[in-house]
Design goal:
Blueprint: H1 2-21, H2 24-29, H3 37-56, H4 62-80, H5 88-93, H6 95-111, H7 129-135
């Protein structure tokens, strides 16, 4: 069971990095419409990075740690440098988000993970309360 948990954590970490490495339109289309998509891109990675570091940090190579720290640092830089970095337009057009995609590709390379479209986890989000009300 513990081995399955480890595998699941690393799978979700991989998917969060794959999503960050995708072109903007794929990134934005894999998330539900009612969330702040730029935030969710970063939050997914941050969550699974934290979980994997907390539980398995000693299993990461120096290259893997370095690549993940650099990607996380870029996301932290976006946060520190203004909310204008956290829009869908920024994800589509800004050179900073291109840097994020490049750094995510470096993480994938460090882990020998493929660059492919990850599954959508949109079903895990709690829907927009207004939308849910209208459906009933």
């Amino acid at each position: 069971m513990i081995r399955d948990l480890r595998g699941s954590i690393f799978e979700r970490l991989k998917h969060s990095v794959q999503l960050l490495a995708m072109p903007a339109e794929i990134q934005l289309n894999l998330l539900p419409s009612f969330v702040c998509k730029a935030d969710e891109l970063a939050l997914e990675f941050d969550h699974w990075r934290e979980v994997s570091f907390h539980n398995y940090r000693n299993e990461f190579s120096a290259e893997q740690l370095s690549a993940m720290i650099e990607l996380n640092g870029k996301l932290d830089w976006l946060t520190a440098n203004g909310k204008h970095h956290w829009t869908e337009e920024a994800v589509r057009m800004s050179p900073e988000w291109e840097d994020v995609r490049h750094l995510a590709a470096q993480v994938l390379k460090a882990f020998s993970w493929t660059t492919e479209i990850p599954p959508s986890y949109a079903h895990e989000y709690i829907g927009n309360p207004i939308q849910r009300h209208e459906e009933n």
